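User: Teach me something about this protein's shape.
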Amino acid sequence: MGAESNIEMRSQSENSVTVTAATAAAAAATDAAKKSDSKWNLDPVQRAMGQLGWWHIMVCAVVFPLKFPVAWHQMGIIFLGAAMNYSCSSNTTLDRCSKSCTSWEYDTSVFSSTIVSEWDLVCEKAHLVNLSQTIFMFGILIGGVLFGTLADKFGRRPPLVFAVMIQLAAGVAAAYIPWFWGFVILRFLTAVATGGTMVTSFVLIMEIIGPKWRELFSVLYQIPFNLGHLTLAGFAYFLRDWHHLQFGISIYSVLLLTYYWLVPESPRYLFTSGDTAGAVKVLEKAAKCNKLPRDTIQNDLEQFAKAKHTGVISKGNVIDLFRTPNMRAKSLFMCFNWFVCGLAFFGVAQYVGHSGGNIYANVAVGAALELPGTVLCIYMMKTYGRRKTLIISNTLTGLTMLAIAFVPESLTWLNVGFASIGLVGMSISFPTVYLYAGELFPTVVRNVGIGTASMIARIGSMIAPFVAGMGEVAHWLPPIIFGVVPLIGAFFVFFLPETQGFPLPETIEDGENFGKRHKKTDTVEDAK
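Assistant: First, the predicted structure itself:
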């Protein structure tokens, strides 16, 4: 009996241990599931509208087309300020740039008029065409900073609509103003507005798209820009008077005025700014369209607002990007690659217009190749990661542009071919640096980091017109510069860590430590 009793007690004990172990395992599994889904559970805004549905797609379908005028206005100078053959008309025996020559006659076989013929921007005034484009790109920089600030203060939708109104008014007025510097000022205002539409629309899209799809949509957002670049050549072909072309690319913004009624405010902005009722209203519409439950949205937001941690998280500033050694190196290397994109993308695009031959065909071919490059970017970033993708694309641009320096200037078709391939590389690099920087900079300085990098890119785009114009000094000079700079950028990327699949750094300390260990498993474990 004693032995049987002991066996029975031991059996019960083992069963108890088994049950306890099973219960513990189940509890652990539940905890793990909760932890794995914790970010989703802690984000009632995203949970209410879903990660991607018909509502998201409709908003994107409405917002994406604003990238058409972004491309038209930024690239328009290729045709608005295109060089025209000219001769001295006041005295045909004089050299065309003689000081005694007071008027010029222009060849109108390609363009009926450009700003060059309108205001005699030739000889000692020829540099004013590039200067006007540099001022325009400075406007893009100012617009990004100004409207980024307005978007944080007043929401995404009002500044976006305001920017569209300025873009329309200033763009149309620029088509008919009779003074060159008035044209420059109005184009500057158009650029400020264009920079505003870029920053507010991108932020709005990224705030409504779920984390799972942000990588894809950050690239798809660029495709209308590529299509805008392509269609610009068609518009310019049929609108050969610069007044008509400027009016044509500006009047399109009339359609964008419908944003006042069609574009919703970011529900995430409404909620974080304290307008819970406004956020609920937008989210209920989104949930209804996406066939998601709406009954608990208001309660979920109110409960989350009450339970939210009230401690103040210290925000970083631009100095924090360079305060510590690892962050300083990563920030410098990343900013330089944004400079590469600003310089090479816009510079090579303008260089194509200076390459001789049929300017319409040259621009159209280069722009047509950008589209598959942007689509290829999606595959490359998923397959090879951000680091290898940026190295490959920068190297592609660098080598093809350097090749032009060794091709005779008379072989226009080959020069344009190499330059077009260079544009393909930049059409991959630009979307990559957007996502790469967003994943590399810590949360507390992510906005200021991307903002700083974007400003550096605009400086590159401001320099680009003058580099493209150096072909008048020496045929090989622009391609050498446009080739060497991307190769330097590719070299710097070797010192940046891969970010694909890694947890996003949150604090300055996270940012400093990120990339110091090269084993992915170690980094992931450290982040847990």
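Now, about its shape. Confidence is low (pLDDT under 50) at residues 1-41, 518-528. DSSP finds 25 helices and two strands in the chain. If you'd like, I can walk through any region in more detail.
User: That's plenty for now, thanks!
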